[in-house]
Amino acid sequence: MAGIPLVDLKAQYATIKTEIDAAMARVLADTSFIGGKEVERFEQAFAAYCGTPGCVGVGNGTDAIYIALRAAGIGAGDEVITVANTFIATTEAIGQTGATPVMVDALDDTLLIDPAAIEAAITPRTRAILVVHLYGQPCDMDRIMAIAGRHKLLVVEDSAQAHGARWNGKRVGTFGDFATFSFYPGKNLGAYGDGGAIVGRDPALLARARMIANHGRKEKYTHEMEGVNSRLDGLQAAILGVKLARLDDWNAARRRLAARYRERLAGLPLRCVTEHAKAEGVYHLMVVRLAERDRIEAAMKAAGIGVGVHYPLPLHRQPAYAHLGMPEGSLPVSEAAAREILSLPLFPELADADLDRVADVLAAQFRSSAEAAD
Ligand SMILES: *Cc1c(COP(=O)(O)O)cnc(C)c1O
Hints:
Layout: H1 9-30, H2 37-50, E1 54-58, H3 61-71, E2 79-83, H4 89-96, E3 100-104, H5 115-121, E4 126-132, H6 141-151, E5 154-158, E6 166-167, E7 170-171, E8 178-182, E9 196-200, H7 203-213, E10 217-219, E11 222-223, H8 234-265, E12 271-272, E13 279-280, E14 286-289, H9 293-302, H10 332-340, E15 341-344, H11 352-373
Parallel strand pairs: 2-3, 2-4, 4-5, 5-8
Antiparallel strand pairs: 1-9, 6-7, 6-13, 8-9, 10-11, 12-14, 14-15
Helix pairs in contact: 1-8, 2-8, 3-4, 3-7, 8-11
Pyridoxal-5'-phosphate binds next to helix 3 and helix 4.
């Protein structure tokens, strides 16, 4: 039997090929490769989609975080509170500004940042909270914004996995001072190369972000400051424009498939990562937690099922962060989760029959372990 991949970008391209090919041809004919009207058009469309006054396209989602923090004046001597159970891009961007990432634990049910832990980690040097809407699930923005308000902290939403997700009916990206997005190909809204964006509430801060992303430029050869070269290109913008029109349908398909997984997996000795009652997640990943994860992960892969682990080692235990001096046991929820999480195949084009087969192969793993124990 053919395998079932974790994500299938070819299946998606097949559904939009005519429009994508036409959009690319348009950019080629126009030779508007960097900047230009496709980028402007996409920035406007994405800001409108998010419900924010503006959007700045950048080179990738990591740069988006770095540039947003820098635009807000975060730098050496500052502390930024974030999580350890995320992709390293989140903390890398903090480090690039010269600030120190302060990693706190996650909540056991949602695996999202624990608001009480944020409050406990605040020091006189804390300047910002960088929340991650992990797996496409929005963080508790009511509690987070209340903490930020009390302590006058900046809030940045790393929304790289959560394009279109809603908290309390409002899209992620509309709560914090800035929200950042990645358009890495496998994300819910993915380009055909690298890309990213920053959205925000304050046009002056967005203008500053745009300047940093483009060599600190005010005019072509007038540089207000040293910036970086991190721009969304015309081809990616044109591709993203085609895909943005379908994002809500694709997210709805992911939600329907996630609900089917929940149904099919009910009764097995595992738990699905919880969706908060106020959240409408977009299921970038379908994550379950189970004992004997390594054995089951290997067996699923051997059966041709594309499972993954996001992520196997929390960042505070990575060699790159040895200098933070956070021993095993510092963040017990994140550490336990890293041993138990397994991401199952989930993409909008996944057929019900294939999802059912994933569920059956997973269920069979528990039967075989029960037999082995007899
Ligand atoms: C993908 C991702 C990023 C970084 O995005 P790139 O476009 O690959 O630089 C940042 N944060 C999270 C949580 C991500 O999943």
